[in-house]
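Late entry, written up from scratch paper. The run itself happened at the end of the previous shift, but nothing got recorded in the book at the time, so transcribing now.
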Amino acid sequence: MDKLTVRQQEVLGYLQLYQRRCGTWPSFREIESHFGFRSTNAVMGHLRALERKGYISRVPGQARTFRINLDLGDEERPREAMEVMDIPIYGNIAAGYPDGVESSGEIGRLQIDAGSAGVRRTRHCYALKVRGESMIDVGIFDGDIVVVDQRPPRDGDIVVALIDGESTLKRFMNRPGSAAYLKAENRNYPELHPVSELSIQGVATSVVRHL
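Output as recorded:
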């Protein structure tokens, strides 16, 4: 592999450190702000250089998905590749009492390590901002971002649900011999039993929190 410039080493180190701490890649804006670049074009220039020199690589068929190929500080030793997916953030999800808030469309992008997030790049995934405190006992707080995998739920999964026309983030309970319902992870909130409709729109696989 070609040697990196000092700045390229700093960018690669920042990417790896950020991912280990947060389970995601920083956004282009965060990289730009961290290094004081004047535009995201400078960020792209450094990422293309890292890709050209073999330190990161794109996943075929995924426009903004990368693998980190080497561990910083040991340029000759390969490591397990990280698949970084770029997924959309679609509005808010109520983690309190259900509400009728509809998706406001894409409001941002999130870079995640597919392995750490518990998703496969072949699935359709997206992210939502959490609003409310009904899931705090499992470490999901107001203002967090949850990564959602659009797959069928299993009993006990934390899900994005539509219950009687209103959306919420809760634990899906579907025990044999009883009707499915939603359970909060905060004793101050009640269980939710559907009157007419309960549909699951995706399973929450991981939480992203910016400190």
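The chain has two domains: 6-76, 86-208.
(Scratch paper discarded after transcription.)
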